[in-house]
Amino acid sequence: MDHTMTTYEQQVHCRAADIDIDFWRTPEGVAIPDDELRFLLVPDTVEAMMVGEVAEQIKAFQQSANEPITRALMVTMGGLLPGILLHDHLVHMPSAPHIAFGSIGVSLYTGPDQRRPKPQVVQESSLEVRDEVVILVDDLGDRGDTLRFLSEHITERGARRVMSLALFMKPRAKTVCPANFYFGELTQDTWIITPREYVETMAKRIPVWKQRGATQAECQRRLVDLIGYPPHLVDTYLETLFEQG
C-alpha cells in the first residue's frame, strides 16, 4: 500500500526551495507509540529561515526604539545556534545600533520533559549588563520558568531593561513570561528537536522507549520514519545508545 506523506513529513524532507515557512509557525509534532510527548524535528534550513524572520523583528525595534537593545545574551545551550545566526543578521549593518553578543549559562532540563526543581545559573553573563538594554536569546519558551528566572537575574545585576527572544513559545510560557520576539507556537506536549540536539534527544529518549518495550528496530522506525531523523545519524548512534540504555 502506498504511503501518503503528511505535511510534516514533506516539510522535514523537502528541498529548501519547497519549504512552507507558514507551516512552521504552528507545527504539530508527531505522536510516538507509548510516549506522552510529541516530537518535532527542525531542519537546519528551517531554523535559519526562522531566525531570519525574527531578525527582521529586532531590526524594526532597533529603528524605532528610544532605548535600543545593546546586549544580547545567548542562553546556553538552546540559545547558542539561533544566537549565532542572529548575530550574522544584526552586527554587520553600519547604520543600526550596535549589539554586543555574549552568553549566559542556565540549567533546568535533564532530558525531555525532565526538569530540575528550579533553574540554576551555571555560567554568569559574559558581558557587563549594568545600565544596558539586554535581550535573552533562547530556542524555546516551554513553561516560562527559564526566561522569567533569567530576566529577574539580569535585572538584579543592574540592567536597564531585559527583553527576550525565543524561536517557539508554548502556551504556559506565554502566560508566565511572554517573549518580546518569537517566530512560532507549539502545543505544550511537543518536544522540539533543533539541529543542535539531534543526538542529545536520541540519548535521552531511546532508553525510555527501550524500558517501555521498544526493540532497536522499533526505535529506528520511530526516529527515521515517524520523526524524520536522517538515517545516517541514526545508523551512527542507535546501536550504542540502545545497548547502553
UniProtKB/TrEMBL annotation:
InterPro entries: PRTase-like, PRTase_dom. Keywords: Glycosyltransferase, Transferase. Gene3D superfamilies: 3.40.50.2020. It comes from the Bacteria. SUPFAM superfamilies: PRTase-like (SSF53271). Coiled coil: none annotated. It holds the Pfam family Pribosyltran. The keyword Glycosyltransferase applies. Residues 75-191 form the Phosphoribosyltransferase domain. This is Phosphoribosyltransferase domain-containing protein.
